[in-house]
Design brief:
Elements (H helix, E strand, L loop, with lengths): L1 H7 L3 H6 L10 H7 L5 H15 L4 H7 L3 H12 L2 H4 L11 H7 L3 H9 L9 H8 L2 H10 L7 H8 L3 H10 L6 H9 L3 H10 L7 H8 L3 H10 L6 H10 L2 H10 L7 H9 L3 H10 L6 H9 L3 H9 L1 H4 L1 E3 L6 E3 L3 E3 L12 E3 L3
């Protein structure tokens, strides 16, 4: 009977368990999840359910058994907007960049609370984080309540991620402006409305990278618009990027508007390596550069059987090497005229390259 009374005693039983190894039963799932880096997402779900069931009053005991979870609870509170949990922490010596974390999560109320303490860890990158994620409400708040110096990167990242309303606000209500990267990266992401806005309202323009990157991501609508409204053009990288991504419609478009633009050998190499047979066939039929041995090597290494078979079938005319007679890239079975000495000979001698 005495033993039973001790086990039921709220004062005595905790003193006994101090000498026992382990954690309370309700904390066991948290202990298991927190020990595995691959289960951090599950850990936050478990912690959320645990807090609903037990509330903040049991947190001191949680920290006693699992002290490493104190940081996790803090981050969880910031990410989920639970200010009542934040009030249980002394943030004066906190090394975490909580403002930036709250901004990234779109938690304006947490941002307000932290700045009112005042706590400013992470404020330096807060505006950029808000702009890159399209959190216009936070961009407006920071503009109205902070005087931190910003850079052109803010509008650049907003444009890159297609956040038109953020770009519009930054253009009208802030002075930092942007760089040509804004339109380049907006084009790369396929964000036509952002590209149009920047072209109409800004003077930075874009570079050739805009079309090069858009081609690599298969954004044909961007290419059409830029080709009509801008004059920067593109580099041979556009064809290579499009071929690498298997964007046959873009490859055809580039070839139609610039049929002799750039060297397409590398384009066929990367298309073959990535298994894009349709692109390889198109370049074979419409361009004369062929490919190098890297095309066949890459296709074999990546198991693209259909591409390997095609390249082997047309190897003599497709695969190029450096000619030992003239020094130029030539098909495997070509016949090259070489001058044997400084004195011209008649007739000139034909010489098959030896590899």
């Amino acid at each position: 009977m005495v033993h039973f009374m001790i086990l039921l005693s709220r004062d005595l039983f905790p003193l006994i368990t101090v000498y026992q190894r382990g954690v309370p039963e309700d904390m066991a799932p948290l202990a298991v999840a927190s020990s595995d880096a691959n289960r951090h997402a599950q850990l936050h779900d478990l912690l959320h359910q645990w807090l609903i069931q037990h509330g903040a009053s049991r947190l001191p005991l949680l920290y006693k058994f699992l002290p490493h979870l104190e940081r996790i609870v803090l981050l969880h509170a910031v990410l989920t907007g639970q200010i009542h949990l934040l009030l249980t922490f002394d943030l004066k010596q906190c090394p975490e960049k909580l403002v930036d974390l709250a901004v990234a999560a779109g938690q304006l109320q947490v941002v307000r609370h932290l700045l009112s303490i005042p706590y400013t860890g992470g404020i330096a990158t807060a505006m950029t984080s808000a702009a890159s994620r399209g959190h216009l409400h936070i961009v407006k708040y920071l503009t109205n309540h902070r005087s931190d110096r910003q850079t052109t990167r803010v509008m650049d990242v907003a444009a890159a991620n297609g956040h038109l309303e953020v770009v519009r606000f930054l253009h009208y209500y802030r002075r930092e402006g942007c760089t040509a990267q804004a339109m380049d990266l907006a084009a790369a992401g396929g964000h036509l409305e952002v590209v149009r806005f920047l072209h109409t309202h800004r003077s930075e323009g874009c570079t050739k990278a805009a079309m090069d990157l858009a081609a690599g991501n298969g954004h044909l609508h961007i290419l059409n618009w830029l080709h009509e409204h801008c004059h920067e053009g593109w580099t041979p990288d556009a064809m290579t990027n499009a071929a690498a991504g298997g964007h046959i419609d873009v490859v055809e478009w580039l070839d139609r508007f610039k049929p002799h633009g750039g060297h397409s050998m590398h384009a066929m190499d990367v298309a073959a390596t990535n298994g894009h047979l349709e692109v390889v066939q198109y370049l074979h039929q419409h361009r004369t550069d062929g490919c190098s041995e890297k095309a066949l090597e890459g296709a074999r290494a990546n198991g693209h059987t259909a591409v390997v078979e095609y390249l082997e079938r047309f190897a003599d005319e497709l695969i190029h090497r450096v000619c030992c007679a003239c020094g130029y890239n030539k098909p495997l079975r070509h016949m090259c005229t070489s001058v044997a000495c400084a004195v011209p000979r008649s007739p000139a001698r034909k010489k098959r390259c030896i590899f």
